[in-house]
Amino acid sequence: MHGIVFSSWLLLLIAQTSVVAAKRTDLHRRLGVFGAVLAVLMVILGLSLGIHAAKYGLTNPGLPPPTTFLVVPIFDMIVFAILFATAFYYRRKPDMHKRLMLVATISILPAAIARILFLFGIQSVLIPAYVLADVILLACVLYDVAIASRLHRAWLWGGLLFIVSLPLRLAIAPTAAWQSFAHWLIS
User: Fold this and answer.
1) Cα 35 from Cα 61, distance rounded (Å)
2) Per 3-state DSSP, what percentage of the chain is helix, strand, and coil (rounded to 5)?
3) How far apart are the C-alpha atoms of 155 and 144, rounded to whole Å?
4) Burial of 20 (C-beta count, 10 Å sphere; 0-12/13-18/19+)
5) How remote is the C-alpha of 98 from its chain's centroid?
6) Looking at the whole model, is its pTM more than 0.85?
7) Helices then strands (H, E): number in the chain?
């Protein structure tokens, strides 16, 4: 279910950008309702699966202990939810909306990137997965700046939220307060 829902988000992103390019904003708005429901389902599933994995000690080699790692999916879903909600709020301002939707999508890529890195036998995937997502974000920003000749504030604030969230979560994860919260969450 998790794979289907999160993959559906990427398919929806492709569909949404295609209908906008075809000047079918009426269809884009109708699909947007599905997108909002899908985003809520993604957050619920992401949080539930993260908590479930921590509760039952499901982890991959090279990753921190489950209660420490729990900070990753929880922050992933918080960052995605903030970016999506902000993009939804700015849905009548296409310049903000499209950029924030892209940042929201990029914010959930590290989990998929980590799975791909595991397939290649790379054990320590957490930092490389986020660095690769940062590179994708940077490529989008540089392309946009080259076209528009300026840095759009959606890239600035949305990108900063995503980029700063990793060191923040890494700083929080080993603290006694986080461990106490994580143990409460999985109990």
Assistant:
1) 34
2) 80, 0, 20
3) 9
4) middle
5) 15
6) yes
7) 9, 0
Please state the three-class secondary structure of 50-117 as a single string: HHHHHHCCCCCCCCCCHHHHCHHHHHHHHHHHHHHHHHHHCCCCHHHHHHHHHHHHHHCHHHHHHHHH
DSSP H or E run through 26 = helix 25-55
Residue found by looking up tokens 């829902």 in the block: 5
How many angstroms separate the CA atoms of 157 and 103, rounded?
10
Tens-binned pLDDT, residue by residue, of the chain (187 aa): 999 999 999 999 999 999 999 999 999 999 999 999 999 999 999 999 999 999 998 877 778 899 999 999 999 999 999 999 999 999 999 999 999 999 999 999 999 999 899 889 887 888 999 999 999 999 999 999 999 999 999 999 999 999 999 999 999 999 999 999 999 999 9
Q: What is the torsion angle, in degrees rounded to the nearest 10, for the CA atoms of residue 174, residue 106, residue 125 and residue 143?
A: -120
